[in-house]
Amino acid sequence: MKKSLLLAFLLSSLTTLAQDVMPPLMPWTGSSESLIVAKDHPWVTPGELSDLTESPTYEDTYQWIKKLADSSPYISLKSIGKSEQGRPIWMLIASKNQQVDSENIGAEDKPLLFFHGGIHAGEIDGKDAGMMLFRDIAHGSKGALLDQANILFIPILNVDGHERRSAFGRVNQRGPREMGWRTNARNLNLNRDYTKIETAGIDAVIDVLTTYQPDLYVDVHVTDGADYQYDVTYGYVKTGGYSPAISKFLAEDLQPEIDQALSEAGHIPGPLLFAANGDDFSEGNVAFSFSPRFSHTYGDIRHIPSILIENHSLKPFRQRVLGTYVFLEQAIKSIATHYTTIQEAIAEDQNQKENSLPVKFAFRENPADTMDFKAIASHKEKSTLTGAEYVVWEGKALEQKVPSLLMDVPVQSVQIPTAYWISSEWTDLIEKLQKHGVEMEFLDEMQEHELDYSKVTEYKMGTQPYEGQMRIQSFATETITRKQSFLPGSVRIPTQQKLKELIVILLEPESVDSFFQWGFFNSIFSQTEYMETYIMEPMMIQMLEQNPALKASLEAEKAKDAEFASNPRRIYRWFYEQTPYFDQNWKVIPVGREW
Q: Model confidence over 418-477: pLDDT tens digits?
């Protein structure tokens, strides 16, 4: 039987769906249910027509938001790019002063919220919540929100993944009925792409972040993993990040107000939750130090207040959408209330006076504290099919004390140079830096400079591609100093600018999100010129005659490495490396440092 026919047969014969065997639900009701309008309302959303059990297709979403934008002078619709399969990525703009362009919105003395749904297209809560919110702003009781802030909203970011939709989209998520796919049409995860910019979706988002400079950036997801009582969990970089003043604002001003609004509406807000042992939280909740390839940590290194929402996948789609609506509405009110504080925090973080920057963090030796954890009771059962134990969630509320395990101890830092230099042949990486908003000076005539470079002395490649790239798994470097000629089109990148920390993270090889570790410089590992023994043999004799110290170095190398001493090929190679014929660019990472 052909594979396609076999798959069709299996699907048609599958009578037990994941939705039917999910853990039992605790009953829920909340005042946020009043946000749902009647099915005969002239601006009922497609999702509300199903009582928020379904979410509309890309085309139905587009037709609805276009109609909404056409109906209100305060709502505009803008294409901010096209997906890999050619679909427009749409953004709604809400402005009381009917501003659309970033320059005009930026000139207003008013905060700006930017949020999107569907970066992982099956996790689509933000789309339906945003449609309801924009409806109520244009034609309901929430119009006053535009007196307080401007709003940018991308309903579906991963539009191609959104249209790879079916009832079999996410096995562990309770609705909607059909869900999109996590990755895009080229199987790339958009929420791993913020530093390398290899997807159309993140290219578009970074353009929005760079041009509009929002005062709060919110990325709406749905979790995987364990069961618990919380329905709306969210987080931001609290410690171990690059924007301490922003972190302080988010913790002390924004979070208490959002938590209060959610609680009053009947929801249970919580922090980002990652069980240390994978099954339950008895061993602790882990607060990872995520690298800037992720949305909220990329925002942190750019000094943009950024929040990652992770609604609980085991809660019904309806409940999750309503919680997202409450979150977004309160976020608008809060950034308006604290607008001066936000501006001061952003400015403080943009002007930090660091001489070095941490690029790697480790866990604290001891838990930071304990949290009162709203758990769900569970027990272990032994599988009759595999013989292994698995967790069974019981749907009963349980209160626990859980240790907080923080990964915020700097264990590796790099010095920040005055400037970086990149030669014109690396145009693709220069363009990536420009997309990030990095300021740089372009050369219009050739210049020569003596700079420091990192030369790779040993390395190991990853064994398989990760997000479409062959990453560097491990490596060691040494610093060399040399003169380098730079042709027109080459760039000098001064570090004294607002995105200093991002520049260092992208260009210093020790950073896990550096261009080097992502594999963009892998061509430096290819050696393209070689020696012949019939040339090297007479050259070796002459070299030893002309340089007596060379013989001492050779003997020392033989003494410390018996395999080298007995390997003629390695000895020839050693001599070849002492000559100016040897490739001076081999294994040299082409990013110069000016001190």
A: 999 999 999 999 999 999 999 999 999 999 999 999 999 999 999 999 999 999 999 999
CA 323 to chain centre: 23
Tell me the C-alpha distance between 309 and 288, whole Å: 15
DSSP of 94-147, one letter per residue? E-TT---SHHHHHHSSS-EEEEES-SSTT--HHHHHHHHHHHHHHHSS-TTHHH
CB-based contact 261:320 (threshold 8 Å): no
Residue at token pair 């791993």: 192
Which string of b and e fits 90-102 if b means at least 16 CB within 10 Å? bbbbbbbeebeeb
Buried b (16+ CB within 10 A) or exposed e, 353-369: eeeebbbebebbeeebe
Backbone angles phi, psi at 584, to 5 degrees: -80, -10
Report the CATH fold assignment for 3-42+62-351: Aminopeptidase (3.40.630)
What are the extents of the domains in the chain?
3-42+62-351, 415-595
Structure tokens at 516: 């080097």
Please state the length of the chain.
595
Q: Span 211-227, mean pLDDT?
A: 95
Q: Using a cut of 0.70, tell me whether the model's pTM lies above it.
A: yes
Over 90: is that where the pLDDT of 530 sits?
no
Q: Which residue has the tokens 């999100």?
A: 513
